[in-house]
Structure formats: structure tokens, C-alpha cells
Specification:
Strand content: 5-15%
Shape: globular
Helix content: 40-55%
CATH superfamily: P-loop containing nucleotide triphosphate hydrolases
Number of helices: 6
Radius of gyration: 14 Å
Order of helices and strands: HEHHEHEHH
Strand order of the largest sheet: 1-2-3
Oligomer: single chain
Structural class: mainly alpha
């Protein structure tokens, strides 16, 4: 999801979740701009089957449902690589990894990719269904 305000992107992601194949599972919203260190730890733990001691793991909390990652353009390259590993796992074995990802950003990710700040492979892995919200003056 591109554009709009955070709450608008969250509402659209929730609507997709509620009509999707994993709608009976949880919907977890995660703000990457504010909590990237927690996401990095969560991804590391999920990818290695390790327990986390830092608190709630958003990846595991969304298991069987949808994890919406908002402000993905703000992620460091290191965290993007971990997220790309998760995307590959989800694509290769959907039965063992019942999780749907959605991503949101205030601005077009193509621009961040062309600037070298976002991994093209991750952009390709996340860009399956695109929904553009009207950009507000505050965005």
C-alpha cells in the first residue's frame, strides 16, 4: 500500500486480511519506522526457530494470519535482508509457514529502490498486489 496516512494503510490492510485466506487468524500491525530493532530480533528468531526474550514477537503473533509492516521504506538493509529471507520461506512452503505479509509506505518504493536504499529483490517479493491511496498534504 502506497500513500495515505498510517491509519488509512492499516484499515486497507485489515480489509485485505478480513477477505483473505487466513482471515480466521490474527491481524498484526507493525510500525517499522518506530520499532525496527524489535522487528529485526523477531525476524532473526522466526528464521532460526529461536525463542525471544525481548517480548512479543510480531512475526509469531501474526502466525496463521496477516502481518502488516508499515513504513517498510525506513528499514535498514540488514533488516530488509532478513525480511527477504522470510518472504522466500513464505513463498517456498506456504503450508509450513502460514503467514500473509502486507506492506505499506507513505511514498513510492520504486524511488527508494532506485536510490539504493531498498533491496530490489525485497521490493519484487512484496509487490504482488498494489493499492495506492490518495496522498494527503501531510504525507
Amino acid at each position: 500500500m502506497i500513500g495515505g496516512q498510517v491509519d488509512e494503510r492499516q484499515a486497507v490492510a485489515l480489509a485485505f486480511h478480513e477477505t483473505g485466506p487466513l482471515r480466521q487468524g490474527p491481524f498484526v500491525f507493525f510500525d517499522c519506522a518506530r520499532r525496527e530493532p524489535a522487528l529485526k530480533l523477531a525476524l532473526e528468531a522466526a528464521l532460526t526457530d529461536a525463542n525471544t526474550s525481548f517480548g512479543a514477537n510480531p512475526v509469531l503473533a501474526a502466525w496463521g494470519g496477516t502481518l502488516h509492516l508499515d513504513s517498510v521504506q525506513s528499514l535498514s538493509i540488514e533488516t530488509q535482508r532478513l525480511l527477504l529471507c522470510l518472504v522466500h520461506r513464505l513463498q517456498s512452503d506456504q503450508d509450513a509457514w502460514p503467514l500473509r505479509l502486507s506492506a505499506g509506505a507513505a511514498h513510492r518504493l520504486e524511488d527508494v529502490v532506485s536510490d539504493g536504499a531498498f533491496l530490489p529483490a525485497l521490493y519484487d517479493g512484496l509487490d504482488k498486489i498494489r493499492f495506492e491511496l490518495e496522498r494527503s498534504a501531510a504525507a
